[in-house]
Design a protein that fits this description.
By secondary structure, the protein is of the alpha/beta class. It is built from 35 helices and 26 strands. It has 6 domains: 178 residues, Lambda Exonuclease, Chain A (Alpha-Beta Complex), CATH 3.90.320; 61 residues, no CATH class; 179 residues, Ribonuclease H-like superfamily/Ribonuclease H (Nucleotidyltransferase, domain 5), CATH 3.30.420.10; 130 residues, no CATH class; 167 residues, Nucleotidyltransferase, domain 5; 92 residues, no CATH class. Strands 1, 2, 3, 4, 5, 6 and 7 form a 7-stranded mixed beta sheet that branches. The chain has a 5-stranded mixed beta sheet with strand order 11-10-9-12-13, with helices on both faces.
């Protein structure tokens, strides 16, 4: 069966339409579809006549015989040319023959397509490309150019059809597969339905099976995902809605649109409300509806309905010619000026575009008039409904919602797209009956907008309603009422009020505070006697030692003489850390402060004191080790100190300790960051963090020795350009696009790629082309990983696999793919070819990003403990300390020992303790190879 232009055009709109046309099924009645067909035929005849008028008899031909060979023809223009090949058939509107310019050059043929609309779409370009492909195969000669004549001005657009042949051939092959089957394709309603002659039949079938495509706004990708989950009907989808508590970061934002909630409203046949929608009309409501011709950007009718108490005034401003548009707009503005505090209410974005375009065309914005009368802005009713009010209708169009509310348009109204056909028919005939139909239709739209507005006002009204109003739309379901109780047992409710008063007496807190406290006084006394002791000058804890600092005669910095101050006594609260024990250690310290006149600084306090604190370094190290390394919250650490060491410390003290520690170790953090940037290997990854309910990001940079965390307000990665401008090593990362712009060699994480490919195969189990690509990649990567397991990450043993990589890409380039998913997979491999196998040409470069993911886990563990209470300052302090903690782990050092030592140079500390960082690095490198990657 040949694929004709008619079938190809139908397939561009809808596969079902193409299949039904191919089987010659009867089309229903659709006035707009018939009008479009008539307009196309009339426009084509007019263009053909216009093209033939300027040619001589020998240079033109009309409907030449199919058997005639155009290569031997002498004509310059052929009209209504039928070309047939083995698989294609096209009736070209016109063909222009350009004679050869010299000997040995063949004549050029240019197909011409006529389109009556002023604005062209991608489908129009594909249709002329289909004509060119059929003509090219018919002639056995390449056709590279096509023309489209369109619009009222007969504008000509040249189309380079050779660039569209690939897409046209794909569509042709899909049509061939479709028509070769015995069963029709899955019925899917789309945006073309109002223009299709099969609209009534398809919609009836979709309603019978309760198809998901009835839901307006549900994309094809979302529908396929639902089908994969076993949801094929609206009723099935309605059970998928689960009311959830919104995160704090989103509570100030508008509720997103839930298709599942729309399905639930349809199933229950009740209005559902999400969030807190509001509609306030403080003034005179003015209901507006605009009629226009989008193809010509011409607004010919402005309908204004003004409600003032019980009286209603309807204005219909009609423009007979485009030149009258300015006149009716001025009349509309005069009407607004005469209304006291006008509040414009309209439905949809068509009127919003009208306001913007009229203001630009005629220099007077409607907002200026509204500002003079109370600073009101036009209210789009649809923007209030979307995401907040779910009517039990398939779509949120004015026709569906107003019809559900009980409003009905007259039978003679040119509803929807038919109004365009009616206006064009009036322009030809000037029939008063057609004009009256358009005026009535516009007035009914204004009335429908008023009905929807009144329904919303009743819906948002919190006043109690009488029995006569119980059938109003205000009887709606609030989504908050659907949320199940989070507590397991919930609130005890009983028809006997005595039971509700008795049951609280069994609560645990009630018994401890009211019952046991009165009947067991010794328990209360013992708890007070053995409780912790508050730290301070009058603390009654045992003093383990008294230390007297030696006198100083000179400044330790400059060596000059210093002035002694009075003798001081301070208590040092610390921990004594033995080989196998930890105990409380309190020291009474006696020392003198000294003042150096040259340095202008005070000194003399014992080194054992933490700066600006009465705590010892061991105690501070103990606190930081628990909070940063072990991720134990401050209240729990406080309880440990209180119970085990009888040290009662305030939470504010612990918070201050962490803040001063971050300030003291910031130079250490900066030195780690410098080591990373100047190294030859860098792993990078990012994760999300909540800052007072607002999203932010934490970036992690690591190699095999150092780790640094960096806070950023967004994920755009623009700071990476400046930070890594001097980095000359190899960057190992995932496929986030922010890394693509960096000027350095890169290695993409192949584990991320494997997961994505595996998910694609599971989602598309019948895509054989995709399976071929993934199977070849798996066969390529398996021996490489086996070599790494045996030999390690050494270039000498890995570079032999480069030949297999080149073979894989040569085979990939030869694949002629039809699957969209397989084509995307192929493009991804080709785009990242220089970044997937960089590790084969270098030593000690991992093929995955496991080091960065492991470092991200450390922050994620800390983030789970904090649970969203981060501030920008606290998260930065935590990242400084966590960077040092993870660097100690990667380097084989003990974070607790480093804090106790009082050092700020982590590299000097490692050298002083005799740690072989190189050997530890090699061990960790091997560990990253054999350890399974994190999920």
């Amino acid at each position: 069966m040949r694929i004709t232009t008619d079938l190809f055009s139908a397939y561009l709109k809808c596969p079902t339409k193409c299949w039904r046309r191919s089987h010659g099924e009867f089309a229903g009645v659709n006035e707009y579809a018939g009008w479009v067909l008539t307009q196309n035929e009339s426009y084509q005849l007019g263009i053909a006549k216009r093209l033939l008028e300027g040619l001589r008899e020998n240079d033109r031909v009309v409907a030449p015989p199919v058997a005639e060979n155009p290569k031997l023809a002498k004509w310059r223009l052929a009209v209504d040319l039928l070309v047939q090949t083995q698989y294609l058939e096209s009736r070209l509107h016109a063909v222009e023959r350009v004679p050869s310019e010299g000997r040995g050059n063949s004549a050029q043929f240019i197909p011409i397509r006529c389109v009556f609309t002023n604005k062209l779409t991608k489908d129009d370009r594909l249709l002329v490309a289909f004509d060119a492909l059929a003509l090219s195969e018919f002639l056995g000669r390449e056709v590279t150019l096509g023309k489209i004549i369109h619009g009222d001005d007969h504008a000509t657009l040249k189309v380079k059809v050779s660039t569209l042949f690939k897409e046209v051939r794909k569509r042709v092959e899909k049509i061939s597969v479709l028509l070769s089957g015995q069963s029709p394709p899955d019925l899917i309603l789309n945006r073309h339905c109002p223009e299709c002659e099969f609209q009534a039949w398809c919609r009836q079938k979709a309603v019978e099976v309760d198809d998901l495509s009835l839901l307006g706004g549900l994309t094809e990708m979302e529908r396929k995902q639902l089908n994969q989950k076993g949801r094929f009907t609206i009723k099935q989808y309605s059970y998928a809605f689960l009311p959830r508590r919104r995160p704090k970061r989103l509570r100030h934002k508008r509720e997103k649109y839930h298709h599942s909630l729309k399905a639930l409203a349809i199933r229950e046949k009740k209005i559902h409300i999400a969030g807190s929608p509001e509609l306030k009309i403080e003034g005179t409501p003015v209901y507006l509806d605009i009629e226009g011709l989008p193809d010509r950007d011409f607004y010919y009718l402005i309908g204004v309905r003004i409600r003032n108490g019980e009286s209603v005034v309807q204005h219909s401003l009609w423009a007979e010619e485009p030149e009258d548009e300015a006149k009716i707009y001025a009349q509309f503005l005069d009407i607004l000026k005469s209304v006291e505090k006008p509040v414009i209410l309209h439905y949809g974005s068509f009127e919003t575009e009208f306001f913007e375009r009229m203001g630009k065309r005629y220099g007077l914005s409607i907002q200026v008039i509204l500002d003079r009368n109370g600073n009101q802005t036009p209210v789009n009713l649809l923007s209030i409904i979307l995401g907040q009010v779910y009517f039990p209708t398939y779509t949120n169009s004015l026709k569906d919602i107003a019809s559900w509310l009980g409003f009905a348009w007259s039978d003679s109204s040119p509803i929807g797209l038919n109004s365009i056909a009616c206006r064009c028919a009036w322009e030809r005939s000037r029939d008063c009956e057609m004009k009256n139909k358009l005026l009535a239709y516009n007035a009914e739209d204004c009335q429908a907008a008023e009905i929807v507005t009144q329904a919303l006002l009743r819906l948002f009204d919190s006043k109690p309603r009488t029995d006569s109003e119980k059938t109003s739309p205000a009887d709606a379901v609030n989504v908050e009422s659907l949320r199940s109780e989070e507590r397991k047992w919930g609130k005890f409710v009983s028809p006997f009020k005595e039971f509700e008063q008795i049951t609280p007496a069994a609560w645990w807190d009630y018994q401890r505070d009211r019952i046991y406290a009165r009947s067991s006084k010794p328990v209360k006394h013992d708890a007070h006697h053995h409780g912790p002791h508050r730290l301070g000058p009058h603390c009654r804890l045992h003093i383990n030692k008294t230390m007297v600092s030696p006198k100083l005669s000179s400044c330790p910095c400059c060596g000059s003489e210093c002035t002694a101050r009075s003798l001081r006594t301070r208590m040092l609260y610390d921990l004594f850390v033995g080989k196998s024990s930890v105990k409380r250690w309190i020291v009474r310290c006696r020392f003198q402060y000294y003042w150096c006149n040259r340095c202008q600084r005070r000194f003399g306090a014992p080194r054992e004191f933490w700066p600006q604190s009465h705590l010892g370094r061991n105690l501070v190290a103990y606190v930081l080790y628990h909070t940063i390394d072990l991720c134990i919250p401050f209240p729990t650490v406080r309880n440990i100190l209180s119970r085990c060491f009888k040290l009662d410390m305030l939470l504010e003290t612990l918070i201050t300790v962490k803040r001063t520690a971050a300030r003291q170790y910031k130079p250490t953090y900066e030195s780690i960051l410098r080591h990373l940037v100047t190294g030859n290997l860098l792993h990078v990854d990012e994760t999300r963090v909540s800052i007072k309910g607002h999203p932010a990001y934490v970036w992690v940079f690591t190699n095999l020795q150092d780790v640094a965390y960096l806070y950023a307000e967004s994920r755009d990665g623009s700071f990476l350009q400046e930070m890594l401008k001097d980095f000359k090593g190899i960057l190992v990362s995932d496929f986030f696009t922010a890394y693509d712009s960096l000027n350095c060699a890169q290695q993409k994480c192949l584990i991320h790629l494997i997961r994505d490919l595996n998910d694609d195969v599971l989602k598309h189990p019948y895509d054989e082309e995709l399976k071929i690509i993934v199977r070849d990649f798996a066969a390529l990567l398996k021996p490489i990983v086996e070599t790494i397991d045996r030999r390690g990450l050494k270039r000498h043993f890995l570079q032999k696999h480069q030949t297999n990589v080149d073979r894989f890409y040569r085979k990939l380039a030869k694949l002629d793919l039809q699957s969209e998913r397989a084509e995307k997979c192929k493009y991804r491999f080709e785009k990242n070819r220089d970044k997937l196998f960089t590790f084969l040409s270098h030593d000690a470069i991992p093929w995955h990003n496991n080091n960065a993911e492991h470092a991200v886990k450390a922050f994620a563990k800390l983030r789970d403990v904090v649970r969203g209470s981060f501030t920008e300052r606290t998260v930065q302090n935590d990242l400084i300390l966590l960077s040092i903690c993870q660097t100690c782990k990667y380097s084989g050092l003990d974070f607790f020992d480093f804090l106790r030592a009082g050092e700020t140079d982590i590299y000097a500390f490692a050298k002083a303790h005799g740690r072989n960082r190189k050997n530890h690095t090699m061990l960790q490198c091997d560990a990253t190879i054999t350890t399974p990657p994190s999920s």
